[in-house]
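Tokens for chain A. Residues wanted.
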């Protein structure tokens, strides 16, 4: 939902949003997104200690969000019991409600530059630029000097397309330029884990974009190339998605992503987001483009 950040208050929980139902001429916040945030709050904020204000970000505006629901019984009225005989006067009443139990989001390209190895990120800002960091991890480590984003990279945090398209240094699975889809914010409520819900969400997102791989490819006019030739040399200037996925996985979740074919990009190293160790992982799938 474009401009969602103008409606959603990151300092309030999803069930406290003043514009949830829409008012003062504003459209309501989609219930699916509110449900996704409820799951993320339970997992990332309540369980893992991420500050509530950091859980919502500007990527939510342009992402596709999925939510899985479970049907659960919610008490409506407790049973009324005769205090003398213990007999039930009125039985307990309940109703079936939909409970959001899992979510994932897909962020289309373009993306911010990849995090720096050894970086400590708080609300997407590196807090230890200039530090020499030694990281020890089976998924990427070593000694590195943490550097902040350059002025050009900071510019790209807010400007969708930059010419020439030199976005990142090359790594094991990414040449630094190729567009990719980013999966993230995968979360499942604690009581529903171990049932394959996370895997179902990953498969659903991959299958959905794989069936419409041109969906986020920009038109030449979108990025200022109205006069670009449609010949091969000209078409190569326009970003096209060719089946590459990325995720920034918590180290504890690496095995789950590996079961779906994702591989750790060790050249990207390891970094901290909100105090939690993360690594970059990539997956390549085959896609069939129209035309």
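Reply:
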């Amino acid at each position: 939902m474009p401009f969602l950040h103008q409606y959603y208050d990151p300092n309030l929980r999803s069930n406290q949003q003043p514009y949830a139902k829409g008012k003062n001429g504003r459209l309501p916040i989609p219930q699916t997104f509110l449900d996704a945030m409820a799951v993320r709050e339970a997992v990332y904020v309540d369980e893992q200690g991420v500050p509530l204000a950091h859980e919502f970000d500007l990527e939510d505006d342009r992402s596709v969000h999925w939510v899985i629901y479970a049907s659960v019984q919610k008490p409506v009225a407790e049973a009324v019991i005769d205090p003398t005989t213990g007999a039930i006067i009125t039985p307990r009443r309940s109703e079936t409600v939909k409970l959001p139990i899992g979510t994932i989001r897909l962020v289309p390209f373009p993306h911010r530059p990849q995090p720096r190895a050894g970086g400590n990120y708080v609300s997407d800002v590196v807090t230890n630029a200039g530090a020499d960091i030694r990281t020890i991890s089976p998924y990427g480590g070593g000694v590195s000097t943490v550097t902040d984003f350059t002025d050009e990279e900071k510019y790209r945090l807010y400007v969708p397309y930059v010419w020439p398209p030199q976005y990142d240094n090359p790594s094991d699975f990414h040449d630094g330029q190729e567009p990719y889809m980013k999966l993230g914010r995968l979360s499942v409520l604690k009581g529903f884990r171990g049932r394959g819900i996370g895997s179902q969400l990953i498969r659903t997102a991959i299958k959905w974009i794989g069936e419409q791989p041109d969906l986020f490819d920009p038109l030449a006019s979108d990025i200022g190339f109205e006069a670009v030739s449609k010949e091969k040399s000209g078409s190569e200037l326009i970003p096209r998605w060719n089946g590459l996925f990325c995720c920034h996985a918590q180290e504890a979740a690496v095995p789950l992503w590996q079961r779906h074919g994702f591989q750790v990009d060790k050249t990207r190293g390891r970094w901290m987001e909100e105090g939690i160790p993360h690594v970059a992982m990539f997956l390549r799938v085959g896609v069939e483009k129209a035309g």
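The first strand starts at residue 64 and ends at 77. Confidence is low (pLDDT under 50) at residues 160-165, 227-235.
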